[in-house]
Amino acid sequence: MPAMETGLKDRVVIIAGASQGIGRAAARAFAQEGAKLAIFSRNEKIINTAADELRSQHRVDVYAQSVDITDTNAVQKFVEQTAAKFGRIDVCVPNAGGPPAKNFLSTTIDEWRKAIDTNFMSAVVLSKAVIPHMQKNRWGRIITITSITSRQPIPDLVLSNAVRPAVMALMKSLSVEFGADNITFNNVGPGYTTTERLGELAATRALAAGVNQQEIYKRWSTDVPLKRLASPDEVADAIVWLASERASYVTGQTILVDGGSYRGF
Q1: pTM over 0.85
Q2: Whose CA, among 118, 127, 157, 184, lies 20 to 30 Å from 14?
Q3: What one-character-per-residue DSSP string does 1-60 give?
Q4: Can you spell out the DSSP letters for 128-179?
């Protein structure tokens, strides 16, 4: 069977939070398509290791920097450096680790502000920075990565439950405002996915329940119609499809990659 033509070869793709988890899987998936990558995360050592891996395995051009996604000036500077290096920006994937697991009364006001800065304002800042570059070429894709919590709340994840839907609404709003520029805006909402962050959440739940971590994974899998957790690569495939020419008429949407966990229509 011939490979699906994505039209992503030599496209310039910015990916935030690309040092691990879904962000790193997305970087690998775009590299496989021959895209040029600009990746960043807070940890300088890990992001440089990821960049070296992408260069050696996929022979693609990678620009990597240590940047805190909540540092507006640093993010804007990274975008401008990417445009100066590659001459254009085609795809942007705002992505950041989710807020900590908490019930409402145990949250602090500072935690709410941090969740908004990390998981919502980061998408605002990146979108504002890249849209003018996309307008120049009348082509662009912005794909946020949130969670199934953008559609359905999960117990003890009240920070995520509240902030993630705002990102979904932002993408919907921008899809209307910038559709005439041939820029699409979509959101991918993963369900339980085997990332480092999920491992931390599983460890916390296991400790509270007095069971081992694998038991928590098993319980989560039982609640999923497909009876297993997602791999980061499966989420990355949805991101690449939304960035591709094959999804040119898809905008303002939230695609759940959740194994059927969301029960709504």
Answers
A1: yes
A2: 157
A3: -PPPP-S-TT-EEEEESTTSHHHHHHHHHHHHTT-EEEEEES-HHHHHHHHHHHHHHH--
A4: HHHHHHHHHHT-EEEEEE--GGGTS--TTBHHHHHHHHHHHHHHHHHHHHSG
* pLDDT string in tens for the chain (265-residue length): 345 689 999 999 999 999 999 999 999 999 999 999 999 999 999 999 999 999 999 999 999 999 999 999 999 999 999 999 999 999 999 999 889 888 999 999 999 999 999 999 999 999 999 999 999 999 999 999 999 999 999 888 999 999 999 999 999 999 999 999 999 999 999 999 998 888 888 888 888 889 988 999 999 999 999 999 999 999 999 999 999 999 999 999 999 999 999 999 8
| Distance from the Cα of residue 26 to its chain's centroid | 8
